[in-house]
Amino acid sequence: MPTLQTLHRHLRWIALAAIVISVLTWAVDLAGVVYTCPYCRSQRTVIGLLGLLLLLPVTALGHWAVRWLATVLAVFGAQVASRQHFGGWSKISAGEFAFAQKWWIDPFLLSGIALFLITGLVLLLWSAPVPRQRDA
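That's the Membrane protein sequence above. Prediction below.
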C-alpha cells in the first residue's frame, strides 16, 4: 500500500498518468468508439487539467491561486461524476439497471473511477509538501 510520501515522491508520474488517461479517453471519444457523453467529456477534461496543475513547479503547488483553481475544477468534476454515478444507483433501485454491452466502458463504472481519480488528484495537490519561502 503506497504511503503519502511515496505518492508525493512520484507526483510527476501520477500527473503524467492523469494527462495520458485524459488524452486517451478523448481520443477514444473523438474517434467515435464510445457514445458522445457530456458527463464523460467534462470528467476527462478535469482529470487532464488537474494533471497539468500537478506538473507545475513544487513551489507553485502551495500558491493559493493554484489550489483554488484545482479545487474549483475538482468540485465541478466530482459533482458531474457523482451525478452520473447516482443515475446508475437510481436505475439499480428501480430494477432497471443493466451493464453496457461492453461492461468495461459502462458509464456507471467509469463515473465511479473518475470520481476516485478527481478526488485523489486534488487531495494529492493539497497535501503536496511545499518548500517554505524565506522572508527577504
